[in-house]
Known about the structure:
It is a single chain. The protein has 116 residues and is an alpha+beta fold. The chain has a single domain (2-109), classed as Alpha-Beta Plaits (2-Layer Sandwich). Helix content is 28%, strand content 35%. It contains two helices and six strands. It has helices spanning 20-36, 86-100, and strands spanning 2-10, 39-44, 52-57, 60-65, 77-83, 103-109. The radius of gyration is 16 Å and the shape is flat.
Amino acid sequence: MTRYLCLYKSATPEGIPPTADEQERMGALIGEMVQAGVLLSAEGCLPTRLGFRVRQDNGKVTVTDGPFTETKEVVGGIAIIQVPSKDEAIRWTKKFLSVAGDGESEVRQLYEQPAS
Length: 116
């Protein structure tokens, strides 16, 4: 089994809460993913105005408070899934997007420590 980090970037402006119907549909999908044993964690992110970025450049650290202007790059939520293949990760991600709506999910395989 392989773990993947799924980063969801919504096409809608951040800070718009989901409707009751959207919450219900997402809850049903999350339940299905838990039942299937593929969902390890899922969280939504609050608006960037409540966040900050920490950057290090040549040893100098800067902290920048939100909001951030590049909203197309704003992560609206994350999930960690564990599936047997990339094809399965794609299948679940497509299913997620069919519920979440327009936007994109960047899916990254997580590093696994080799068994000793």
